[in-house]
Amino acid sequence: MIGFIIALVSGALMSIQGVFNTEVSKQTGLWTASSFVQFTGLLTCLAVWIFAERDQSFLSLMKVSPKYVLLGGVMGAGITFTVIKSIGLLGPAKSAMLIVAAQLIVSYLIEVFGLFGVEKTGFQWMKLAGVVLFVAGILIFKWKS
């Protein structure tokens, strides 16, 4: 149950953060806002690290394998940029639906094919039906009356 609660909180925070970041970018510039977001995120992570994981050395990052998994920060910058742009162009609700749809589809493909070291689950028709229903829900939500 705690996993569900954490996921719900994550989704709520992502939606609120996207709106905040979009507003900051309107007043300052997209890359200024993105830099600020990443910098304050770094400061927050360092502060939490000091209190929660100080015994873990940053040198342990040198042992991470495969090395491409260290690109999360680069992807984070891309995520911040694309969320700000999509919310600015589409609004928060449409952006969130499309972002979540893309997350669902890509995550399912990662599981089906066992990409990036994730355990391969194989194709399941019921999960595909869930994805189709989700996309249908997006189309219904977007439908103009």
Automatic annotation (TrEMBL):
Q: Membrane as a keyword? A: yes
Q: Does the keyword Transmembrane helix apply?
A: yes
User: Could you tell me which InterPro entries the record lists for this protein?
Assistant: YdcZ
Q: Which GO terms describe its cellular component?
A: plasma membrane
Q: Which controlled-vocabulary keywords does the entry list?
A: Membrane, Transmembrane, Transmembrane helix
> What domain of life does the native source organism fall in?
Bacteria
Where are its TM segments located? 31-52, 68-90, 96-118, 125-143
Protein name as catalogued = DMT family transporter
Q: What is the lineage of its organism?
A: Bacteria, Bacillati, Bacillota, Clostridia, Lachnospirales
